[in-house]
Fold each of these.
Amino acid sequence: KGLLVDAAGTLLLPSEPVAEVYLHHARKYGCTLSAEQVLDNFREAYNSPWGQSTIRYVGSGRQFWREIVRRSTGCSSEALFETLYDHYSRGDAYFVTPGAVEAIHRIRARGLKTAVVSNFDTRLRRILRDLEVEHLWDAILVSAEVNMEKPNPSIFVAACEALGLPPETCVHVGDDRRNDVHGARDTGCYAWLWGEDVLSFKDVERRI
């Protein structure tokens, strides 16, 4: 068997609310929005059609995130973008979901193979290294590196191939119903929605 895991929102969570981090730095450049407004703008920008029509993260993802910062804060300062981009390049901007490391160790000890399958830019590997969890995975599939993005079944196929397993023997866990659950099931994998089908990595360990 194989376990595929989404990164942001499942394995990794932000250390501080994203809107508050954006606003803290944007105020230095004249931003007068509230945290709620920044959060609403962020969600609208992130989920807008222009972000879903093509692969979001090309290489470093800088073009995508520059637009997200601008639309979230109303500020076009390159210095602001660089500050935020650098902040989210480091492991200390995130924390690993409690219980994940221990559960993944036990799952691997049972002989299962593990992979991260993430829509992310090329910063992800550094973040996993910073958080000392890169070694937990037999494969890491980053959309910006493989030029494929969930829910495209191709990225799940590539993950299964990297593990040397057929899709029907793999389970994918992620927090996005469309990208993670539908995408994985379209490939032939099992899929569990984080926060609904499973609430913790102990649940994952118990069910797999």
Amino acid sequence: MSTFAKTIKQYEKECLKNDIPAETVMAYLLEISQRERYDLFMHIDDEMPEELAKEFRVGMERILKQEPMSHVLGYSWFYGYKMIVNEDVLIPRCETEELCALILSRIDEIFPTQETVECADVGTGSGAIAITVAKEESRVKMHATDISEEALVTARQNAKNNEVDIDFTAGDMLQPLIDANRHLDVLISNPPYIPQDEQMETSVVDFEPHVALFGGEDGLKFYRMIFKDCKKVLNKKAFMAFEMGWDQRERMSKLVEELLPDARYEMLKDMNGKDRMLFVYFNC
């Protein structure tokens, strides 16, 4: 048996040897022990219970092999909501929480009195964005699409677990929305935007679905598809919200101006000061 302090220190050293942030150890331990940080520190010199120690060591060995902590846990926290994650869906990132906050703000600004706001999340993956926006804004009627049936199984379970009603449909990009003759106020997408030949970390490329990562030769393939078809599903007054690569500002500007010359757009920085969000406005 070993104390919490000794076990944490041991695995922090192992993490650093494997280029994994040392704080991963504490984050994982807090999750599986369901304890608050202050409570754990109050008992840091206590012996770790045998069952907890076993679960912790098994999980940490997987993490040391570059498996994402969220996959080891089977879930990830997003905007305060618990989301199942697995090999079929992309693990939601904190930058995407910022996108959700801005979407909610724009809905309030642009549609302050509208009773129902028709929204769609294209390429929904785990459903994190769709679920968050629908949970946080009661006026939203949310539709969500994904080409992966496996991803939709996870998204539907996440919606059920978080007690929110979302219309999920399988299909490629906007096609299910076009086929259903949807008329949207808000179109949201966090599409694959990594160029096909870009080098990725092992924890990403070996454990997350490539269909959710790579966006063609220049990373803009799926934006082009959406920009070309968006007017088929958008109301006259509407906006679109996207996550984008931090280094895509110039190429994205040219693409918007080329394919959507009548739209107004803005690119917003994330908390790290990087261009990560694109908003496109029509008549608003």
Amino acid sequence: MFPTTARGAHGARHAAEHWLATQQGWPEAAATDDDTATVSLLIAELTANAALHGRVRGRNARLALTLTPTTLRIEVTDARGEHLPVRTPEADADGESGRGLLLVASLADAWGCESHHPGGKTVWAECTTRAARTRQENRV
């Protein structure tokens, strides 16, 4: 859980990075420092979006990471189910915002959003691990 503030999102990202660094199998799953940086960037973007667009006074957001042999799944849940992410083909070049989900779409292997009744949503992103990518490459 983290407060839906910029500081809360920042703290959640650092806690997630620390958790990943201590997980058995993660250093091997992330083939390079670029993979780790990609995951960190995805976490930063999703938590920042929750702080910016998912804020409800008195309610926290939740960051969850699930590491399997093939995938790292990042989930950020907030209380604003009426504010679903909009998939836009491109952001305004002069705009100050709107590029975050384009970044998520380009860096993640998959991403999406799930609404929760009676309110709230979970925005998620998945990254394929190195072991899974190696198996896929060997099949080709």
